[in-house]
Batch of 4 targets.
Target 1
Amino acid sequence: MPLSRPRFTQRPEIWLALLALGALIYTLADILAPFVAGLLLAYLGHPLVRRLSTSWFPRPLAALVVVGSFLGLGLGFLVLLFPLLARDLLQLIARLPNTTDAWQAALIPYLPRNLGVDWNTSLSTWRELLQQHLGSISDALQNLLLSARHGGSVLIHLFLTLLLIPVVTFYLLKDWDRLIQALAQKLPPRSADPLRQLAHEIDVVLGQFLRGQILVMTCMATFYGLGLHFTGLSSGLALGITAGLLVFIPYVGVFIGFVLAILTALIQDPSLLLPVCGVFAAGHVLEGSFITPRLVGERIGLHPVMVILALLSFGQLLGFFGIVIALPASAVARILLGHLHLTWWSKETDA
């Protein structure tokens, strides 16, 4: 008897629709980013809105309070850390001349001896070199100006994106129950119960992911903050907390904190480079090998190898946006594939 396949596999329009949806998401990844962020925040804040909503405290007002709380937490984080960063930045700027002199004192004897650089080159020789390369310098300045303009447009786009996130979050929170009810009414009667079960499993795994991610951010912010503070690095506590809270962006967040810490160490005291690198190396091993696989990977049912594969694959396909959504999207895909396998297996058993 030939193998029977589930009915949906025999309908090519379903596969074409899925392919078209995937292509659309890939094309609009940058535009969809604030909406996905707003959806995640709304999903996280929905239980709070439900608890706050009463007959005398309407849901729109509860949604506004929750969005305001999210904004307050973000602004509070900036208000607490910014003075520390600003104070230590001023101290580093004050030390910069002495640091520059120290680097010159170290490099001037080294370069002629090892690289053959002659520091006694006459002023006229430098003037001739400048005239010869004047055109190249002009081109470089023009390219720098174009880059600055492009950077300005990127900053404007980032600002608008950040401005859009709380707006999307508010409207989703305000109409969450209505949207869920509308989706439920669109379900085919025959498939309603299995789809509700599927939605429940996805809801559970996404909740576990968010709770696990918050625990990871807390652990790594504590580790990096205390680690950099005890190295004696200026702004070590603030830089470490920032790097730890940015681990929700795999690799990118820690890399930003690492670069800032290295630059601070170079200006403050180059002897701090080794301890700073040690803190980030230990944190990377701890977070990648133990904390994230245990607190996130196991909660969402992904093997550590699959976690790494998901990050690399989604990053290659969707860039920065793909890295951010890699783990929750992979967890949802695992559930969907599990249900497809059960459907296929039940069809085979019935046959």
Note: Residues 1-6 have pLDDT under 50 and may be disordered.
Target 2
Amino acid sequence: MARHHTIDLVTFLAPGQKLQVDSPLHTLCRMIETIPQPTRSTKERARTALTSLLPDMALRLESVAMRNLVAS
């Protein structure tokens, strides 16, 4: 696939997770950007469940940092 396409990857990393230097992603992707996976407390999840029209799963990985990376 990479021979016919240019692949840029933006992804979340869970706490404690790191992209390995020898990951095959480095040979497939022109650019890799990682940001920490957002976390929401139980209190925050309950608040948004009561005040948002969006389901909890839609807000689970909501991230301004990710939106900015994708937009750039």
Note: The helical segments are 25-28, 42-51, 56-59, 64-71.
Target 3
Amino acid sequence: MPESPASREYPPMRMWRRLAVVLSGLCLGALTSTTLSAQGVTGPAFVLGSLRADSTKTPIVGAELVLTSVGRTTRTDSTGAFAFRELPSGRHRMMVRAVGFQTITVNMDVPADGVDDVHMTLKRAVNELETVDVKASGGIRAFLLNGFEERRKLGIGRFLDSTVLGDVDPKRWASVVMEKIPGVRLINYSGRRSFASTRGAISFRERPKGDAFDLAQGAPPNCYVQVIVDGLQRYGSRPGEPLLDVNSLEGPFVAAEYYTVAETPLQFNREGNAPCGTLALWTGR
């Protein structure tokens, strides 16, 4: 019986069967392949692979992989394997994230006959917002929301709690955030949406624009805000960083807080790279 792809050992990011993978953070060239934006589009192609920790090479279980190009999501199984099937061929973008690891974004060209050896590694997160000793009653969720309440008492920033977000249709939460928080707007492009500030960046040169894939999809240069979910940075407003599609965020969200550049607390801006402000979201999970 032949070995399954997930059981074989491969070096990280090895290219197989005409797969062209470009990690975010590298210099991206012009996108000449056909880009895909319509969600729900299917085809004969597929992507199979596995995910391991960079340092130990052990499988990462339960990691979330999002094909933002077609709005598809899956998770790794107990062996770290994952699969996307019935995909259209062409240029795809995959976002890979797991608790305790750095999020990566991968651009790939998927041929009509698919790819079956996509093996990736994630590095341990080194820029966590803060390390805490949780002793509060009610567990980590109660502890995080207690921090939300403490910041709200200071009167700096704008806040939405469960009385506003608790009963919102999961498809409308982002629109409610935009409607209720002055200074925040949603930028729509090719079926995607990203949060931006109406206040402007510290300087035009620092304004984040996304990467080459975003530009090819029609994302306009804008002041895209830093986004933090449950204490983890999901988008950092860095030059050339792939934009965060808010359609890929999973709720329900029970609280939100927004800060302009000058208001952003140190715990949300340890790297000093939030030139467009910060939106922090808290889930009910």
Note: The two ends are 42 Å apart (CA to CA).
Target 4
Amino acid sequence: MGSPKDHLPPISEDTIRALFAFLDLPPPQSVSTLSTTAEYHSIYVISFAPEVADAAFPTLSRSNKDCVELILRISGPHLPRIKTINEVAAMTWLQQNTRLPVAKVIRYDASTNNPLGHEFTLLQRLPGVTVSEIYDRLPPQLLDSIINQMVDIVQQMHAVSWDGVSGLQFDHDGNVVPGPIIEETFWQQPDVVKYWPESESVQSLNISGPYNCYTDYIAAMVRVYQHAIRLHPSLADMRDILPRLDLFVNILSEFPELNKTRYFLAHKDLHFANIMCDESSGLITGILDWEFSSIVPAPRWNPVGAFLWNGQYSEGAMAERDRLKTLFTECCAARGLKSLIDETKPNSVMQGAMQEAINYLRAIVEVRPRGQKEERVPSWRSTLESQLKILGV
């Protein structure tokens, strides 16, 4: 599997300037590339002279005394339309319903019918630096403050309950409503073309939604993974398990406790490369990269374990993440917010087994067609089967 960065578009400054003319916005004072860890967007800083910015963007604060800066994020072809719409809808809802520091959306296009030939979002530039950039020089008291603020962020996001599992989109009146779900583990367009027959698409290999409940969401995943197993030669030795997967779907409705959960909006990738702060005060000034956020069952709020990772690829990074998670848990308990932790745990052995089964099934379907991690597949299948046994399958 290549990196998503391999498919990011190279865009010239002239093309970016043509976009601003197309949008009937004033010409930028300057256009520069922003070096970031972003994998799904090419990112540019767009600067405007003060007198131009005051007229065109009167509600935006200046990044410095000389200019107003915007961020242009140009999407690759990974997940056409749904990723851009989901991100803009999530950011819009957060602006309207929370106090979280989320950038204002100035313009966006979820089509390729623009001078860039790519989807894009044009956003307010938030002040500060990412916590990952300064992590190694953060004083302990500022790190404690950041952890305390992360409790506030999680509390606000978990405060609003939704109905079912979904992504977000806009209705005809511009209201934010449930839409197709989106996951970073989806089969994305470049890999669909590379590894699958021409008959397949992003839509045929991934779930969609919205889903009324947790078990409907799980059942939909089983069905797309069964489709993949039937189709791809590398998964041929998994076909003997297809009848058991049918039974898995059929028994989900027999256990009402499997749907005993709240549903709330989760970022799903809240690591410190996505958190901005003021270096001198430790005040969190921005939360970035909402493209894979969605409405999830509580146990799925941190699906890949990225929460509080310091953004570093070092030997001790995972141990440090776990240390910070302990500090976060202690902070929640001290503030009387232990429920923020408790409700994200499976409510029963059965619910945990349901999720573990789908996790390992997904892992097999994800790596086998790519020819990866073959040595791990037998143990993953064994775990899948052990979880199915817990469910009586």
Note: The chain has a mean pLDDT of 94.
